[in-house]
């Protein structure tokens, strides 16, 4: 049996027409520090370590549709964010620039759209 090479997930990367604006939104949402800031790339890191969240310029970016229908640009990924209180966390997300999605599939989850249209879920146990 072949030995698996060491692999470490360092970040999830979101494409955006303006990575700095999107990074600013997530900086406000999480309070994470900016670790890397380049013209077409920004990385945020959590204070306690772990994988970061990066943003890169995509000139041909097409905003996803939630939920997607036939012929719509589908989301390729989304973030699940556990919170203590959906209402408090949702108000914080909206104040940072998120939009509550019209379609909500579950009672204990709230789907929001970031300023570039990426869906993310706030949820409680």
From TrEMBL:
Its lineage opens with:
Bacteria, Bacillati, Actinomycetota, Actinomycetes, Streptosporangiales
User: Which PANTHER family does this chain map to?
Assistant: CONSERVED PROTEIN, HYPOTHETICAL FUSION PROTEIN
* Native species: Streptosporangium subroseum
Q: What is this protein called?
A: VOC domain-containing protein
Q: Which residues form the VOC domain?
A: 8-125
The organism's superkingdom is given as Bacteria
User: Which InterPro entries does the record cross-reference, listed alphabetically?
Assistant: Glyas_Bleomycin-R_OHBP_Dase, Glyoxalase_6, VOC_core
